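Per reviewer request, we include the raw input and output of the structure prediction for the construct analysed in the revised manuscript.
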Amino acid sequence: MRLASAWICGSILALALGSTSVWASPSDDEEADDPLDDDTVVVDETDDIDDTRDDDDPLDDDTDDAVVLVDDTDTDTDTDDEAESTTKQKKPARGSRRGEDFDRHGIGVRAGMTVIPTWIFSTFVEAHTNALCRGDSLTNFAVTQGLTRTDGCNFYVGGEYVYRRSRVFDIVPSIGYLQIHAPDGLWLDEFDTVAPASGGSAVGGADYTEVDLGIMFMEVDFIARAPLVVRENIEFGLGGGGGVGLGIVFGGVYQTALGSDPDGYVPGVGETPGETCQFISDLSDLQRCTPRYDPLEDPDGTPPPPEQLDPSMGGSARPYARCSREECTEQDLAAFGYRRKSERVPPVIPIINLIASARLIVKDMVGITLSGGFNTGFYFGGSLTYFVGKYGKSKSKDKSKKQAVRASLLRGV
């Protein structure tokens, strides 16, 4: 019975497919003896047999089960395809914003240099020294702004944590150390000048100044960058922002008065002939304008023994400090008794940061940043950051797990 049923089903399938190999077109002579008539009867009988079998044959349940399994397999396949398409990240188009699957947390180091422009100092002082990161040459503009000497460069170094709020916006707490140093020299406050016509030197109020400061800064920056280039493994953004923080000041600024009626002195030779310390331009040479003891500046009015300063001076009542053209001996200045640490330097200063920034991220893992701006002075530097912690990855995993559970439940139905 099974064999007859299978044969009939195959015949019907062949008819549906138009197979000529099973059904050949009979000739007119053969129409009377066409076996299809018998087959038609057989089909009818088979239908009766199948109807009878539908009532008694236990294979009906198995057939139904098979249908259910096929349907469940289709559902499972569709569910798996849906989960795979959901978790698969699309490749971003050129210039488009990438998806949420990015490393959100970064740890990095930063370094750079800081310059306080001469024109800022000239607002408060008539003469000063500075570190401009360009050697010891002086331009005409710098001289007109009161710069008497330049040398050295100030650097900063620190660590930072980068929190990527999005691919565009960062919050960056940082901590670091900034060196502020200027070459030793004579500084003259804006209101300490005296016209030579009044009978005194125009620079008698100058102070020999030693600047040796350090600032530990703690700040939080808020930076937004527009993604100009977005690729599979490279992302480049340009933007800027601002920040606020505090700086704890270390070290100090030490000053020693040049003294009234200043003049020049060359160690081992003696005083320079003539009036060599009369104008602001003379302050650049410490052997033309040499700090000397002034009893009006000394609290106890007792001059140090000349031998303590320069044995060649003999019994001079107003000894000079031993100086080269660029710096003086700290021991001699301290012997005057009035080398003082300036009280005008606060222990803590506010920091307001203005930032311009460009950043390149490679493989969403390594960030290279160039930054410039203004806080305690104009600065330029860079940072290297390592990013960790995929933001969208955990979301995709959770969604995949939920879809897998759903698929397994459907299999059990």
